[in-house]
Design goal:
Elements lengths: L1 H31 L1 H25 L6 H31 L5 H12 L4 H8 L3 H21 L7
Helix pairs in contact: 1-6, 2-3, 3-4, 4-6, 5-6
C-alpha cells in the first residue's frame, strides 16, 4: 500500500519526507544532548570549585575576598547539582519509555554514557547498522513522546 504512494511522490516528495524525518529526530536528539552538555559543564564546575577552594585557603584572612569566593562557590555548586540532576532526569526519562529494552539500552549508552556508535556496537555485539536503526527508532519514539507530553520541555 505504501510503495505506490511513495512512488507517486517522486524524488522531491521523498526528499521532503526524509528532511521532515531528520528534523523530527533533531528535536529528540537536542533534548537528549542536554546530558552531553551537562557532562562537560560538570567537569568545568568541578575545576572552578577546586580552584575556589584553593583560593579560599590562600586568602583565609581577607574579609573582602572570602565572602565573594564563598558566594561563587555556592553558585558553582548549585549549577553543578542542576546538571547532575538533569543527567539523572534524562536517564530516568529513557528508562520510563514504553519501548524495547534494547532500544533503551542503546539510547542510554549513546546519550547518557556518551559512547560512540561503534563502541555501542562492540558492547552489545550488534552490527553498526542495527545500532543505527535502534537509535533512529528510539529518537522517533522520544520525539512523539515530547510532542504529546503535557509538561513543557525546555531544550
Amino acid at each position: 500500500e505504501t510503495l505506490p504512494f511513495l512512488a507517486s511522490l517522486g524524488y522531491v516528495g521523498l526528499l521532503l519526507i526524509l528532511k521532515i524525518g531528520a528534523f523530527i529526530m533533531n528535536i529528540a536528539k537536542k533534548y537528549l544532548e542536554q546530558a552531553y552538555i551537562g557532562y562537560h559543564r560538570i567537569i568545568c564546575y568541578d575545576l572552578m570549585i577546586k580552584g575556589i577552594q584553593e583560593d579560599l585557603s590562600k586568602f583565609n584572612n581577607d574579609k573582602i575576598i572570602i565572602p565573594r569566593l564563598k558566594a561563587e562557590l555556592i553558585n558553582y555548586e548549585k549549577q553543578r547539582r542542576y546538571w547532575l540532576n538533569k543527567r539523572i532526569e534524562l536517564k530516568q526519562f529513557i528508562i520510563n519509555l514504553n519501548i524495547k529494552d534494547k532500544i533503551k539500552q542503546v539510547l542510554i549508552l549513546r546519550f547518557i554514557e556518551l559512547k560512540k556508535r561503534r563502541e555501542i556496537s562492540d558492547i552489545l555485539h550488534y552490527s553498526l547498522s542495527y545500532i543505527d536503526r535502534l537509535l533512529k527508532r528510539g529518537l522517533f519514539f522520544i520525539d512523539e513522546k515530547l510532542k504529546s507530553s503535557s509538561q513543557k520541555v525546555v531544550i
